Amino acid sequence: MLAQEAYSALVFGVVLLVMERVLARRAAADGTGSQFSLGMMLVLGALFCTVAGYFALQPMMVAARAGQGSLSFAQLHALSAGFYLVKLLLVLALAWRNTVLSPSPSS
Question: Which pTM was predicted?
Answer without folding.
Answer: 0.85
